[in-house]
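Spend some time on this chain, tokens included, and walk me through the fold:

. . .
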Amino acid sequence: MGLTERVALVTGASRGIGRAVAEALARAGAHVAVNYRSDATGAAEVAATVESLGRRSLVVQADVADPAAVQAMVDGTVEALGGIDILVNNAGVIRDGLLVRMRPEDWDRVIAIDLTGAYLCARAAARHMLRKRFGRIINVSSVVAVTGNPGQANYCAAKAGLLGLTKALALELASRQVTVNAVAPGFIDTEMTAALGLAGQVAARVPLGRVGTPEDVAQAIVFLASPGAEYITGQTLLVDGGLSLGL
């Protein structure tokens, strides 16, 4: 995929989609900064995998909703790995509940991590990318940004906000050859979705007949980071097995 010697920062990379993305980018040739908020063990495992592939890694703890922590994370990545070429805004949380029962703090936390966190990371990383006149920013949204989902007003709003952010940044950064795209996964088999116990029901509604894997999403992100996608910006790629077509 032509990512040799590129440097990637993946947020929320200690497990699930983020872990698969970090490892796939390393297999494609990139050095990887592995961000985590609380799962230090998982992040260390991902970094070990990256290094086993002959790439350099950096494990960096940061809450992406904290502006100072984000700036330190990006600056630390540049210092330790020599730059930042690829940013994958993957960190996310859910705090589900029907709107009339949703606590303001649950709304605020999801918006802070899933949307504001992406803004903070993109702002910090873009400064380096603009100087280099090269960059790839990839935001991990969700199929619910397009379809909606009852009980997830906060999550749907945050993930839909990412699509608007993607388009605005694509226009702002294009003159310096920085592309900004989004992927919108459907129902992906992760620890987060496993807790819902809905895999069987969802699989029956997916035209391709199965739920997705983190690797399905990771390969789409690697493509958007690659030279093969250099003429693509401001777009959203749904990785949902056709789920959104039937909703």
